[in-house]
Amino acid sequence: MRGFPALATSYAINELGDNLGVVALAILVLDRTGSALAVTALFVAGKFVPAFVAPALTAGLDHQRVSRVLPALYALEAGAFAGLAALADSFWLPAVLLFAFADGLMALTARGLSRGAIAAVLTPAGALREGNALINVAFAVMSAAGPVLAGLIVHEWGVATALWLDAASFMAVAVLLLASARSLPEPEQGPRERWRARVRDGLEYVRDHPTVGRLIVGQSVAILFFTLIIPIEVVYAKETLNSTSLGFGVLIAAWGAGIVLGSALFARARGRSMRTLVLVSTAAIGAGYAVMAGAPTLLVACLGSVLGGTGNGVQWVAVMTALQEAVEDRYQARAAGLLESAAAAVPGVGYIVGGVLTAAVSPRLAYAVSAVGVAVVVVLWARRPIVPDRVSV
To answer: Does residue 392 have a pLDDT over 50?
Structure first.
């Protein structure tokens, strides 16, 4: 479909570049400072802080021509990574944090605008679910490939090379989108509004919508419980299960295998209602955590990891698709950007809670709390509509 290949490619490369850059930068900061706090500051600057700014920037840009705004954002990302590559040889932490913030802000804004443009391309043809399924598979592959590729490039050629290649990839995306400008959708032209009015209007739309606000808030809470166990997985594998570093790697790989399986299941689930897919996939993640909370052996924990990963492979794309189906065209980018930003900001809280629970009692408690929290979200979603009847399939 006209415009979709370029938009899907840009979204996938955004994810690949984001993962490649995060790993390369984390290695750079740790090697140059030897400080875990400095690495933490990198993640706060590049992930957490941009999540609070990106929704406002998205609202300010979503009425502009996609064919101009998206290439400009990717060109700015390329510039940020070029600056970071230059800093690899003349390291200065404040400058690294500033460029990381700029990259994170551009990346989140580009994702929100891309989701809005993708919905504009696919919805009129009734192909939103199929297109999102393809993007979900690409997203899963890029999420896995980015860190591996970063580790390989840094090991063989150094951090600077990885960052220069990342800059080149974003510039290539900008060129691709410029070359595809005629096929990209243009935003619906509503009444002219000031920037603050657009931000306020978007937030009020989400708040007042019968299902969208509930979907975004519920997903934000769910993500908190999803990510609560991420910092303590290595402790769980090596100390709670008495496994090895290889066992920890297998446990993480099991979750990744589940994500790939879930992506394939979503692509084939054309006849299922979006509400059912959201509820069942969310419940599957909670069930996976419950299995892992009580797992006596690494094998059982890996089975729980596959179950949770399978739910993960369906859950995010199902929630995003439900959101896109429910939202009016002119609010697509703002609503999707708000969800993307929540997904970037909330994990920081989850990491802290998981670490505290593990330090106070054990990793098993962290997994159990995650399972219970996810179950509560499922129950609350099941009791009240999260997908309007008119968009149920």
So the answer is: no
The residue type found at 278 is V
Neighbour-count burial of 372, counting CB atoms closer than 10 A to its CB (0-12 exposed, 13-18 middle, 19+ buried): middle
Token pair, residue 169, equals 């990839």
Q: Which domains does the chain have, with CATH numbers?
A: 4-187 (1.20.1250.20), 208-391 (1.20.1250.20)
* 45 neighbors 156 (Cβ within 8 angstroms): no
Cα 2 from Cα 121, distance rounded (Å): 8
What does each C-alpha distance from 270 to 8, 130, 133, 136, 264 come to in angstroms?
20, 8, 10, 14, 11
Give residue 97's Cα distance to chain centre.
20
Q: Do residues 248 and 392 make contact, with C-beta atoms less than 8 angstroms apart?
A: no
Of 122-131, 210-219, 244-253, 355-364, the poorest mean pLDDT is in 244-253
pTM for the full predicted model: 0.78
pLDDT over threshold 50, residue 29: yes
What does the pLDDT look like over 59-83, one tens digit per residue? 888 778 888 899 999 999 999 999 9
Q: Are 317 and 136 in contact (CB under 8 A)?
A: yes
Question: DSSP assignment of 36-80, as one string?
Answer: HHHHHHHHIIIIITHHHHHHHHHHHHTTS-HHHHHHHHHHHHHHH
Q: Which residues contact 373 (CB under 8 A, 6 or more apart)?
A: 221, 222, 224, 225, 228, 286
